[in-house]
């Protein structure tokens, strides 16, 4: 296991089940703080009223998903308005995971994609935040995954390619990450999200080039890690 980054700091601990109750959100935030995960990701409405105050004075950031999550089909201008709103909440909001417009990819509208990548990522980086684009590999062909990654590599203000929202038709596959890494290795980081539930998966994805993970199973994965490696 590569220990250059503390294992707990590889996880954006994620609770985006639309049926989550407020008490679920509270306990999830508490767990995230206890394990000092990289970020907490919970239903967005809880951020201004609750989560910002909870993470104050900790190392845990808040991860948001602007851009019509989880489908990404809203106009670029509306994605920008969401980004501006979350920026206005302060520096506790550290990471912006923006969903691409899959319909535009299917339409081969590369000009729209390039414009959106540049416009939105430049705004995020101007605010000194982390910019990730969710490419939703479960809805793309291998050719489309490669093309989208080629576009992203050319935009210096994008930090990460993220595999999925977790709401796609299948989990992220090892092949997805292998393809992404073949294009972005050494240029962008890779965040894997969508069906990450075990330490074995995390270790295999890391060997393929992934560095960060979005998972609702972060606690159980970390406990597996402690049992295997002794913390």
TrEMBL record:
GO terms for molecular function: deoxyribose-phosphate aldolase activity. SMART domains: DeoC (SM01133). Its EC number is 4.1.2.4. One of its GO terms (biological process) is carbohydrate catabolic process. It comes from the Bacteria. Keywords: Cytoplasm, Schiff base. InterPro entries: Aldolase_TIM, DeoC, DeoC/FbaB/LacD_aldolase. GO terms for cellular component: cytoplasm. This is Deoxyribose-phosphate aldolase. It comes from Mesotoga prima MesG1.Ag.4.2.
């Amino acid at each position: 296991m590569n220990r250059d980054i503390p294992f707990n700091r590889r996880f954006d601990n994620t609770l985006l089940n639309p049926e989550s109750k407020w008490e679920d959100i509270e306990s999830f935030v508490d767990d995230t703080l206890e394990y000092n995960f990289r970020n907490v990701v919970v239903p967005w409405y809880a951020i201004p009223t609750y989560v910002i105050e909870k993470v104050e004075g900790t190392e845990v950031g808040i991860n948001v998903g602007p851009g019509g999550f989880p489908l990404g089909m809203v106009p670029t201008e509306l994605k920008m308005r969401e980004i501006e709103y979350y920026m206005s909440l302060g520096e506790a909001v550290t990471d912006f995971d923006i969903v691409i417009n899959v319909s535009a990819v299917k339409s081969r509208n590369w000009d729209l994609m390039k414009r959106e990548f540049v416009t939105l990522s430049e705004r995020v980086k101007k605010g000194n935040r982390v910019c990730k684009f969710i490419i939703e590999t479960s809805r793309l062909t291998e050719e489309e995954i490669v093309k989208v990654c080629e576009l992203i590599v050319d935009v210096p203000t994008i930090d990460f390619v993220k595999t999925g929202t977790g709401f796609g038709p299948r989990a992220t596959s090892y092949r997805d990450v292998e393809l992404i890494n073949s294009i972005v290795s050494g240029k962008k980081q890779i965040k894997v999200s969508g069906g990450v539930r075990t330490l074995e998966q995390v270790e295999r994805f890391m060997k393929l080039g992934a560095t960060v993970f979005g998972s609702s199973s972060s606690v159980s994965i970390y406990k597996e890690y402690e049992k295997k490696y002794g913390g």
